[in-house]
Request: fold
Amino acid sequence: NAGVMQNPRHLVRRRGQEARLRCSPMKGHSHVYWYRQLPEEGLKFMVYLQKENIIDESGMPKERFSAEFPKEGPSILRIQQVVRGDSAAYFCASSPPSSQGETQYFGPGTRLLVL
Amino acid sequence: LAKTTQPISMDSYEGQEVNITCSHNNIATNDYITWYQQFPSQGPRFIIQGYKTKVTNEVASLFIPADRKSSTLSLPRVSLSDTAVYYCLVVMTSGTYKYIFGTGTRLKVLA
Reply:
C-alpha cells in the first residue's frame, strides 16, 4: 500500500514564475492537508481539503496561493509569481474519510527553491 | 487558539528513557494530541496519538494529565537512530478544524 506521494521532490523556480506541487493521498484517503516548513522551523498548516471542497484555508496566504483537490487526480498546491520568501519545504498529508485529521500520514515533501 | 510549545533540544544517551513535554494551555475539550518524528529531508512520521490519560504502542507512550494542558511523549531505551526532531500536534475539533504543530524538540542520542 503506497504512502502519500508528492512530486516533484525538488523544484527550482525564478522569481515571478509559477510553482505547481502535486500530492497523491494514500489509497482510500479522501482528506488532504498542506503544510509549509521554513528552514529550521516547524510545520505551519496551510489548507485542508476534501474531494472537490476546501474545508479550511485559514493558513493560506491571501494572495498568490491556491489549492485544489479534484474528483479525479492529485491535489495541487499552486503558487503564482513566486518570491524568494516562498522557498521552503511543502508537505502534504492525508487521512481516511472517518477522520478529521487526528492521524495524518505525511508525504516526503517538495522542496521549493526560488532564485 | 491553542499554542503549543516544546523544549528546543534535548540530549540523551543510548538505552535511556526520554521524556519530551509539550505545553498546550488553551486546549479545548475535544481536541486531540498527536506526536510525530521527523528526520532531515523527510516528512513527519506518526508516532502516537491520544486524548486523555495514557496511551502506549510498540514504540512510545503518551501521558496526558487530567487538565490536558500538557502532554509527554516517552521513548523507552532510545538508540542512535532515534536522533530526530519530535513535534506535537494539537488537532482542534471545535468549529472549523485547526492543526497546530508545536515548535519541535531536537533530540540527540549519544553513544
Remarks:
- DSSP finds no helices and ten strands in chain B.
- Chain B has a mean pLDDT of 91.
- The interface with chain A takes residues 32, 34, 36, 41-46, 49, 87, 89, 91, 93, 96-104 of chain B (CB under 8 Å).
